[in-house]
TrEMBL record, chain A:
Functions as component of the Arp2/3 complex which is involved in regulation of actin polymerization and together with an activating nucleation-promoting factor (NPF) mediates the formation of branched actin networks. Arp2/3 complex plays a critical role in the control of cell morphogenesis via the modulation of cell polarity development. Functions as a component of the Arp2/3 complex which is involved in regulation of actin polymerization and together with an activating nucleation-promoting factor (NPF) mediates the formation of branched actin networks. This is Actin-related protein 2/3 complex subunit 5. One of its GO terms (cellular component) is Arp2/3 protein complex. PANTHER family: ARP2/3 COMPLEX 16 KD SUBUNIT P16-ARC (PTHR12644). It is found in: Cytoplasm, Cytoskeleton. It comes from Sanghuangporus baumii (Phellinus baumii). One of its GO terms (biological process) is Arp2/3 complex-mediated actin nucleation.
From TrEMBL, chain B:
It is found in: Cytoplasm, Cytoskeleton, Actin patch. WD repeats lie at residues 51-83. Functions as component of the Arp2/3 complex which is involved in regulation of actin polymerization and together with an activating nucleation-promoting factor (NPF) mediates the formation of branched actin networks. GO terms for molecular function: actin filament binding. This is Actin-related protein 2/3 complex subunit. Its main location: cytoplasm. It comes from Sanghuangporus baumii.
Amino acid sequence: METAFRKIDIDKYDEDVLLEEELYEPDPRDPAQVLADTRAKATTVRSFLAKDFLVTRGDAAGALNIVLDGAPYGPNVEEAKNTNLQTLLTILGSTKVPEIPGILKSLSQDTQDTLMKYLYKGMAMPSWGDSSWSVFLAWHEKLTEIAGIGCIVRVMTDRRTV
Amino acid sequence: MSTPEEYFIAQAPISAHAFNADRKEVCLSLNSNEAQILRKQGHEWKIVETLSEHDKVITSIDWAPNSNRIVTASQDRNAYVWSQATDPLTGQLVWKPTLVLLRINRAATYVRWSPNEDKFAVASGARAIAICSFDPESDWWVSKQLKKPIRSTVLSVDWHPNNVLLAAGSADAKARVFSAYIKDVDKRPQPSVWGEKLPFNTLCGEYSSPNGGWVHSVGFSPSGDVLAFASHDSSISIVYPGSNVIFNIKQATLPYVSLCWTSEDALVAAGHDCQPVLFQGSEAGWRAVGSLDDTTAPKSSGVGRASPVGRLNSAAFNTFRNADMRGQTAAPGLPGAGSSSEAELPTVHQNTILSVRPYEGTPYQVTRVSTSGVDGKLVIWNVAAAAGGGLAGRMEALRV
């Protein structure tokens, strides 16, 4: 059976095509501002980690909230997106596995959804090595148990990709 | 606790179903270009007539209770109105089709009669909704199209009780409320929370879920003052236009694709999760009450859903885990590691529910709803099962 027609980009012939940008509200901040915000957050979180703040105070949830709140999305902010993922990975990697469920339960539903977006983004990174993948997988398992499959569905549905 | 009435219709997906006024007959389509009318005989539904006029798969069916007319919409870009007439040869009552001039160039996806049954709305992939009314001079149904500002396929519609306003859910992640006022058919509508002046194609409201996603289903509350919609981000949203309050309830399950209101403060939603769920609330807030399906009761195979939400414990997951941890491969034909029992869901429906509709009661007090799905089942549920026989009820029983 002839199937090549399925690969034709029919949107090319549509004058009134639905654009990706029409499917979500754009970030009101301009890209430079987003990058500056993200770097500031990275510095805050790094100083937390340097003082062993997370371990002594057990405030990984607070650090996660800083990173995940107002996470960069949309076009033209690739650098901010990657910086934020790096910052997130340092938090995830420095948390002990038994503490994960408690931290996840303290997050709001929106924050859980954003975290899941980053877990999938992290697992899609080609050259990050096995150690970070195992961190992402451990968090993914726990987050799925707490937030359900609905959380994964929202990651796939949401066009505000991080 | 009352058990749902369960009918296995066929080994094929039921694309759509619609009961007649006295609920003795049902019109449904088994994912084909034909619609069947079935009559209840004992505990069985028997085919009494087949409606074949469409060339492609029928996507939606609606049966007007008072005028006893059926309307079908199909991927062949046509809709037909079917009415009963006496066949001059045999003298028997048969269903005769009337063509509708939809003027759309993509599939018709959804159809619903207006409350007065003098109009119907056909949603389509042509970024348009055809509002159809009867033209007695030419003896056919003519249409007027709602187009702006729809940006993608319209997936569902629902009529406001005033016969003028129409809600539409679409693949551009928006739920909208339009005026579908037709001069020759409608009287001037009373002002409502949706607006006062309502010429054709007035956009009275446009809403979306925070996470976006296709809006699979829309529904006006019985009074028409509240709008609910289910979207593909596994959430339902309830809109109060008067105070501009929108409640968004995110669920931990797969998305819902169909919903229907059961009273002014409650609705039932169902979909990929394979079970109908009751939601209750008011302008102060909304919450999920529980499933109409008692998934903890032992079904034929005795598999309970003891695991919490989101536990990755599906048959597919276990297949991969066994392959990974123990080197087991479930070859087809061999009895794999409990694959036959785990393949059966603890729910009544064994696959996605495509449609949930009111079955018994008045719009303000629906006591039973009907569902049909990809598993070929037609099920009639007691709405009270979620509230009375839910988890609280079972805990009560345990204490005794």
